[in-house]
Amino acid sequence: MTATLKEWPSLGGLSVESTDRPAGGRFFGSAALMVSRFVFDVIVEGSSFAEVSARRDAFVGLLDPSRGPRPLVVEGEASWVWQDVMVSEEINWGRAAWIRGTVFRLRADVTLETQADATAREESPASVLVDPSASFTLSVGNATAYPRLVFPAGGGPWTVKIGGYQLEIAAGIPAGRYVELDWDTMMFSETTAAGTRLASLVPRMSRFDRPALVLGQPVTVSVSPAPSAAARFYPNARRA
Known about the structure:
- This protein is mainly beta.
- The protein has one helix and 20 strands.
- Strands 1, 4, 5, 6, 7, 8, 9 and 20 form an eight-stranded antiparallel β-sheet that branches. Strands 10-19-12-15-16-17 form a six-stranded antiparallel β-sheet, with no helix packed on it. The protein has a four-stranded antiparallel β-sheet with strand order 11-18-13-14, with no helix packed on it.
């Protein structure tokens, strides 16, 4: 079996909201990426009708929507993974070659779509140590990124700064726990050192909007007072 990507998505499911301006032109309101769509040219081949049918059925079984969405890594884009992808249209097989006793070949377009976030993430995410501050410039991907920050919670209260963004976190988290601020998934937690979630951090936070990382724009990341061990900053680089 071979599967060749026919359409490479960029700015998947782009939606732009704007209105006419009385003086001419348009006023930009907002933009959103809704879905990334992947269309593959799939060829299934066998030396008999039974063999090609079995291979077709095995392939379709792997795509069964009842299995739910799964990650997708595309050939040539091995550094990036699209999360929560699943088949989105029926598959109609055509006979590409049908020579009895020699080769049986079926061909179809197979369409996959993201079910949640339309952008890809790094397959092996990078991170930066913040001890107690660090300079960082996003240099990977092509979309605005929303970072994640993790540090040990002994002491407090804390002030977290990422560029011009500032967040206050109230004291009172038990010793031995960690602060995990994930603005990519909007999940804010008290965790174990291994990352197991123990409690929500939301009641201790002063704000809930996102700091954004823009390609090529430097930011300074800091935690004050300095945690007992260095904080770890994950840019969560994205590709649209």
